[in-house]
Design a protein that fits this description.
The complex is a heterodimer of chains A (326) and B (444). Chain A contains 14 helices and no strands. Chain A is mainly alpha-helical and 326 residues long. Chain A folds into two domains: 250 residues; 55 residues, no CATH class. Chain B is 47% helix and 15% strand. The chains are: A mainly alpha (326), B alpha/beta (444).
Chain lengths: 326, 444
């Protein structure tokens, strides 16, 4: 009679337990206070304008996305490669890679949940004014929590995959900046991308995360204060000297400086200012940031794709661990 | 074309021919076909092969092609175009590894000829390469070191055809060949190893560096399959690997355990993985406690693995494999880093395990202090083609008689290569033992 040994489910429990023990006995718990510190720094820098106007919201959500990508990447980048010889030994003793990666997924989900919770709490403590209307769950906190968790977790799974394919921690730490830079550049929030580069943003978790966060924050309904701020800061006397000969009215004698002065004068009216910034906001409409439940859920599903694909790839990569050279 | 241009063209042609002739003769000196020198990609790869740097030679050839293709493609696009910019960038990226691998190959060649690495500079420059071609290739006084001449002599010697069988409980090993593909060539790591180890025996596996000890053990345990038949009792290790793997304990050289886990948890997790699923929890727990007791770890059960001493870690590493009570127990240098007393105690423990009817095979580089504990000895040695061969297998006292030595260290000295400080008599003993086996029909 064939003797049966522990299957995938029981191994999943064994390894999940092992990872949670490490959380306490090793120094993995340090990732949580680190998340709080990073969130505090970002909310200190962009918190006052986050969810208030377009520019501040874009910068702020980009900052939050960056925190999530950063946390996710650092959580798991060394998780497998640092114990690769041990995993190889255990694989020879009957370890199923699906259980091993499954255990990591559970453990990393726990870490990401904690980190995301910490970020939300820090944002509240920093008096960031949250949007009032939820588009999916009925709670803006929950919408933001889910989005940030998904970004962190997807980044975590990408890093876990990197950790599964590289042989040592040095290589992992060399590869990681490339993963992060790709995520940040191709988020589409800060750099204007077009053509092939824009197509690449479809493969960046950060792009979908940023879209979801902007959609949650009602980005397209926020005021755009950039143009008004520029008008307020125009130095009319400098324009008078630099463009004294420039007639922009086709012979009526109105110069650039005159036009700027008229604009500045007109914009002193508070009602007009208010109306103007919202009109500018409407003109800066971005379809990707459309605030409705469908768009947000679509973004979540796109991030979810990475969460499904990368663990599968990690398992496939680790199945070949026996081929590692001694 | 003016006369000056013609002269330059002729000079370049002559230099090119000198380089090819020189490389042709370099190949001849290494016992390879000279015409490799006129086939661009093959030439680079074979140069690497000559000096034992096949991998570097392969990548040198690969990046050479990539670099040349990309840099030639630049000419097809308008100046300052995006395409030109991208291709220039890619060719620069290709050039860096090409240069690095080229340097590595030429450094290897300098090493193979026993010359200073400064020669690499001349070799790298197109204008001075011909000097190297003349010096290393055409100059007959410059010859490669002896050890490089047989690097790729993975000879197709005939196999002995010996096949040993056990008595139904023993470990019988018939490794005909263990080869690996190294890019375009096949390297034979082990050849013709036939032996039967009875249960209850503790066997010392002896051999110099690179003789194939770990490769042999990996082939025996089925971790790295060879062209072989390995039978443990009624099981064929290769065919029944999935059933067998729990009956084979392999303790690696390094202590591969998580330092942040406790001793007890490390063993109990190993027990959960390796012990049968239907074993009751209480039985598993009792087994864990028993193993902790056997290896003197009971008092340390709550300690973190990272806090253990070298000897304690080694005992824990052995306990992890012993938990499933394997029939075949293999240990790769279990005494490395341990002092004499601790090492002796560890081997006494292994002797006790063997006495329970298990087969214990141990690699150690300091066998002198524990020689009396072994029943048999396996001696592996590299033959002229650097293939691991069986130089002896049998009882310890017979081994001393066979090699004309009184200690295991003297055996090692006799079989080690001359450049390793040994006597370089491996081939002699391999042939002697081969003849002995042939005479005895496989039973030494």
């Amino acid at each position: 009679m064939e003797i049966k040994h522990s299957g995938r489910i029981s191994q999943l429990f064994i390894y999940t337990g092992k990872l949670f023990r490490m959380f306490v006995l090793q120094n993995d718990w340090k990732m949580l206070p680190m998340a709080a510190i990073i969130a505090a720094i970002v909310s200190y820098v962009v918190g006052s304008t986050l969810f208030v106007n377009m520019a501040g919201t874009l910068m702020g959500t980009f900052g939050l996305t960056s925190i999530c990508v950063w946390n996710g990447c650092f959580n798991s980048i060394q998780a497998i490669c640092r114990e690769r010889p041990i995993v190889k030994r255990e694989h020879r003793s009957g370890l199923h890679m699906t259980s091993y990666i499954g255990a990591h997924m559970i453990y990393q989900a726990f870490i990401c949940l904690c980190q995301t919770g910490i970020i939300i709490v820090v944002l509240h403590i920093s008096n960031v004014s949250f949007p009032s209307l939820s588009h999916v769950t009925g709670s803006v906190d929950a919408d933001l929590f889910i989005t940030m968790f998904l970004i962190s977790y997807a980044s975590d799974m990408i890093s876990l995959f990197v950790s599964a394919i590289v042989r040592n921690t040095t290589t992992a730490m060399t590869v990681m900046p490339f993963v992060m830079i790709f995520q940040l550049i191709f988020s589409g929030g800060i750099f204007a991308l077009s053509g092939f580069a824009h197509t690449l943003t479809d493969f960046a978790v950060s792009r979908w995360g940023l879209c979801a966060m902007c959609a949650i924050s009602d980005y397209n309904s926020l005021p755009n204060e950039m143009i008004l701020a520029t008008i307020d800061n125009i130095d009319v006397s400098k324009l008078s000297s630099d463009y004294s000969e420039t007639d922009i009215s086709g012979g009526a004698g109105i110069t650039v400086a005159d036009a700027a002065e008229i604009l500045q004068e007109g914009m002193r009216d508070p009602e007009l200012r208010e109306k103007f910034i919202y009109t500018c906001g409407e003109m800066a409409y971005v379809e990707d940031y459309r605030s409705d439940g469908d768009n947000i859920i679509n973004c979540w599903l796109n991030i979810g794709t990475a969460i499904v694909i990368f663990p599968i790839l990690s398992v496939a990569a680790l199945e070949f661990i026996d081929k590692d050279k001694r | 074309m003016d006369s000056l241009q013609i002269i330059f063209t002729v000079i370049r042609l002559v230099i090119g021919v000198v380089c090819i002739v020189g490389t042709w003769m370099i190949f001849s000196k290494f016992g390879k076909k000279g015409w490799y020198a006129i086939i661009p990609l093959v030439c680079e790869y074979k140069l690497g092969e000559c000096c034992g740097k096949e991998r570097d030679g392969f990548f040198m050839a690969l990046f050479s092609v990539a670099f040349n293709i990309v840099s030639s493609a630049v000419a097809f696009f308008p100046e300052n175009s995006d395409e030109e910019l991208i291709l220039s960038l890619v060719s620069l990226i290709m050039f860096v590894p090409y240069a690095v691998f080229t340097i590595r190959v030429y450094m290897g060649l300098c090493e193979a000829f026993g010359k200073r690495r400064l020669w690499v500079i001349l070799w790298l420059l197109d204008s001075t390469k011909w000097i190297c071609a003349i010096y290393f290739g055409i100059n007959k006084k410059i010859q490669p070191k002896e050890s490089y001449l047989h690097l790729n002599d993975h000879a197709s010697e005939e196999l002995s055809g010996i096949n040993v069988t056990g008595n139904g409980r023993d470990l019988s090993v018939n490794i005909r060949k263990r080869s690996v593909n190294n890019f375009f060539s096949k390297v034979t790591l082990l050849r013709d190893l036939h032996l039967t180890i009875p249960t209850g025996h503790m066997v010392l596996l002896l051999g110099g560096s690179g003789a194939g000890k770990t490769t042999f053990l990996n082939a025996v345990t089925g971790y790295e399959k060879a062209d072989a038949d390995v039978e443990l009792g009624k099981w064929n290790v290769y065919r029944d690997y999935n059933k067998m793997k729990y009956d084979v304990g392999f303790v690696p050289q390094q202590d591969l355990m998580r330092g942040s886990d406790t001793v007890y948890r490390t063993i109990s997790d190993a027990a959960s993985l390796r012990l049968p699923k239907n074993m009751k929890y209480a039985e598993k727990k009792a087994r864990v406690d028993e193993v902790l007791e056997i290896f003197g770890l009971s008092a340390l059960r709550g300690n973190l693995v990272s806090k253990l001493s070298g000897g304690q870690r080694k005992r824990l590493s052995i306990a992890l494999e012993y938990i499933s009570f394997p029939t075949l127990f293999i240990l790769d240098e279990p005494d490395s880093g341990l002092d004499g007393v601790v090492a002796r105690n560890l081997f006494l423990k292994l002797r006790e395990i063997a006495d329970t009817g298990k087969i214990v095979i141990v690699i150690t580089h300091t066998p002198g202090r524990v020689m009396d504990l072994f029943d048999d000895i396996i001696v592996l040695a590299k033959d002229h083609a650097r293939t691991g061969r069986l130089a002896f297998y049998g009882p310890v006292d017979e081994a001393f008689g066979f090699f004309g030595c009184t200690t295991a260290e003297e055996i090692l000295l006799a079989i080690n290569q001359k450049e390793e400080g040994g006597e370089g008599r491996a081939e002699e003993f391999v042939n002697k033992f081969d003849a002995l086996l042939q005479t005895a029909g496989g039973e030494a």
